[in-house]
Design brief:
With about 90 residues, this protein is mainly beta. It contains no helices and 8 strands.
Length: about 90
């Protein structure tokens, strides 16, 4: 489980940067990647089916589910997949 993107972990959507989440589930099932704002409001929900055992890359372009660019701030992330529950944070700058 790895999340990469931006310079030193800071993502800038004005430079076209995106977050890449590398996930390798242990079995078949859905991979769910959720991005929240600091108030706990879900801003982006990505669901990708997986056959398991392979590493998939899920990208977030710093837009909400409605397609709007998210404002600068800290975004907690929850990744759930078969055999995985991972929490982390990303920082978006503008």
């Amino acid at each position: 489980m790895t999340i990469v993107g931006g310079v030193n972990g800071y993502l800038d959507g004005t430079r076209g940067e995106a977050a890449s989440v590398f996930v390798r589930p242990t079995a078949a099932g859905d991979i769910r990647v959720r991005f929240y704002d600091m108030n706990g409001v879900l801003v982006r929900n990505i669901v990708v089916p997986s056959s398991g055992g392979l590493t998939l890359v899920i990208s977030w372009n710093l837009n909400s589910d409605s397609g709007q660019a998210v404002p600068a701030g800290v975004y907690p992330i929850l990744v759930e997949a078969p055999g995985i529950e991972y929490r982390d944070k990303l920082v978006v700058v503008r």
